[in-house]
Amino acid sequence: MDSGRLEAFSDGVFAVAITLLALNLAVSGPGLHHPALAAQLADHWPAFVAYAISFATIGIIWVNHHTLFRSFARVDRTLLFVNLLLLFFVVSIPFATATIAAYLRAGGADASLSAAMYQGVFEGMSISFALLFWRGIRHGHLQVALTPRQGRQAIIRFGIGNLVYIAGIGLAFVSAPASLALSGLVAVYYIFEQTQVRAPASPDQSGQPRPSGPA
Amino acid sequence: MDSGRLEAFSDGVFAVAITLLALNLAVSGPGLHHPALAAQLADHWPAFVAYAISFATIGIIWVNHHTLFRSFARVDRTLLFVNLLLLFFVVSIPFATATIAAYLRAGGADASLSAAMYQGVFEGMSISFALLFWRGIRHGHLQVALTPRQGRQAIIRFGIGNLVYIAGIGLAFVSAPASLALSGLVAVYYIFEQTQVRAPASPDQSGQPRPSGPA
Amino acid sequence: MDSGRLEAFSDGVFAVAITLLALNLAVSGPGLHHPALAAQLADHWPAFVAYAISFATIGIIWVNHHTLFRSFARVDRTLLFVNLLLLFFVVSIPFATATIAAYLRAGGADASLSAAMYQGVFEGMSISFALLFWRGIRHGHLQVALTPRQGRQAIIRFGIGNLVYIAGIGLAFVSAPASLALSGLVAVYYIFEQTQVRAPASPDQSGQPRPSGPA
Amino acid sequence: MDSGRLEAFSDGVFAVAITLLALNLAVSGPGLHHPALAAQLADHWPAFVAYAISFATIGIIWVNHHTLFRSFARVDRTLLFVNLLLLFFVVSIPFATATIAAYLRAGGADASLSAAMYQGVFEGMSISFALLFWRGIRHGHLQVALTPRQGRQAIIRFGIGNLVYIAGIGLAFVSAPASLALSGLVAVYYIFEQTQVRAPASPDQSGQPRPSGPA
Question: Model ipTM?
């Protein structure tokens, strides 16, 4: 079974989820009971910050998904369902984003819970992507086998991503804004890590998957 | 007529429907008149349960749709319209999910009606998928003919799925939560039934459609 | 320029528009100020009827779009923009559907205006599709030229569709429900007209476009 | 890396964003506290105007995106992220459209801010598209090199588009409706500029990208 339709369906889900994020930016008004637009937008800053972070995170996971499936020679039914698990967390991102946007400034237990949920959805996505990757390697879906060094690098990358998101869940109960900022730093790091100029001889340019994103 | 664009359009509909499911998870607040976030989320449990079941059910029907059309050599106009009938029920799932999520805890006739509608949409989807399958077999769309044994297996699978959803409609008027739980059990069963390890000699690995999902 | 990406983008728009239709079915409640679910659903009948008609109409135009572009050897920039005009009306259908669903039972000028808008969007879609078809013929995009008889048949089909929608706009000011019923009859007619069994020697089976839908 | 999946994902985002625009057209009512439908629609005119302009602008950028990537022989990771930056602004268009639709008639600072935001999103989209184009040229992604004359033409086109949007941001603080009208004129100009009949010997018909839209 080739992966064409899995990719088309996944692209559709990624595209809808990333576009629905912006629905949450809506401001109310105008009217007697509404402050000026500038004041509303300023007041609304967590929505804009969470929107940008979620957009970048879905974008990175899409790039990684694209890279991973490009290197798969075939997919089987189990992989279709593991992919659905990944999409389950992707689809949950607009909800988690809307919740942290609404509750971040409420402070206290509500803000912490919303931030922990936000990081938890990213962690679920990260674990699902790791499952996709390992399932692909163990059942010989890769067109070209990984070298031991590439395998170690992938383990390190997945490990770091997972640890950061788990740290983010913990940090949420200390400071919700700090936890949100951590998600943003992870996204910025991965974008620059993935687009840096590399020497032509680097083994990472061999066409292997480089699943180094939030997953 | 090849099936490429039918699949692309269907994938788009599946992807939008599965992603819109999460819109229904939104919590209100914060504010003076809203309980704490944790209390709201706990109160909101039918929305999360119905979301997970609907996500899994759309995912399974997508896997089956993918498998079925992969085995079709060609499609005709009638098949395009039968496929539209299937998509009609898929598109109705977010509405049915939102209704059961809102009314399950109301109890009484309202909860029963919402659960019966939920099962009814799944039953409509199941019958439409069976129509797609039979139309494909009868008009020679399959690339490889089914053996009599495979035909019997498919009849049994469709029969079981239909009977369970009809039972679910009846059960809704006894206990709406039990009817919802039945939908969840069906989804879990099909996921494991479809991803189990099979012996290499199994006739099910011959590339034939295995439309064993909720349809 | 081949038509692959035009079709992919159009399929995306058709898929999102057809799925958004169902958002309008949402019922409110439960709560003290809401009637029973069964009463709400019964009260809501124009939403369900308009949903089914709009779904069928978008489905038919998608089938025709699919058939038309399958017969085009190439597309140019002008065709991309004419296609965007068609999509403009498709994207407007969920709005027109929501408006007639809300206002049909209000009666009077409001109901008539909502029904006229609904038919007007279909008429706009129909004219855009005719433009796509004529542009394709006049600039030699068709892979196989139409025979004079096929050209006459297409003119008759487009003429009938256009006349019925214009009649529907007029009928809206006499009876809004009758105008809505007319849209439904058109959809039912086209579905059966397009899926009827035809004799093998019919010139309509020659692979030519049969743009006989609402367009 | 070929550009197939980048285009599929981008098409999905364009399709969802262009379809979500229409959600903002919804009118409320009917009911005792609502004016007649005709009055509501007339009152709602900024929503319809902004809808038409945003639809045309997304449509033009899609046509340009299609043309640009058709001429790329390959894409790399950096281009995937520059494309995500473009999509970030595309996804923001429904929000900017809803805001100007709501605030245009409020007048004063609110109307100006909403119009400046609207033009600002278009300017961001325009700069992102220019980045995509330059990145493609500088890193040899183009299948056929541009002639110096074509390069100069592209610079002039990008320059004009950027200057007009910056002028639109400034104009917003003088007159918000005039700024909105300017966006509409730009869209109308590009549609006609791109679809005009050209002499066969024109170098613009050589299959090169003609990214002359709002980007």
Answer: 0.88
